[in-house]
Amino acid sequence: MYDEQYQIPIPADVRTRMELINGIGIKELIHTGIAGVIGILLGYICNLIFHNYLIAVAVFAVITVMTFIAVMKDKHNTSIAMLIGNIINFYNNQKYFKYEKITRRKENDYELTII
Which residue blocks in the chain are alpha helix, DSSP H? Predict the structure, then answer.
């Protein structure tokens, strides 16, 4: 109760960190840069295999743009990558419990069913 007196409500659209573009901060740019380097390497490998520069540029562009879109945060401070991670964690942490169902047929006669 003592701590509740000193809590300050933060409005929904106030950001707690510096953002260069709305929803894109330094952390997101670093993730996009790392994906861009991986895209360059994969594009170079595709260029060696197919001998087509256009395929290499397309691989680089698709990987970089998809990463940029996936890490961009919305007004609720969540991104597509975070939502996918939460979905994976939810399904990995599911617990299944076997339980017994007791049904009453007559006055003192019970039937046990394991589901």
Answer: 26-50, 53-71, 80-92
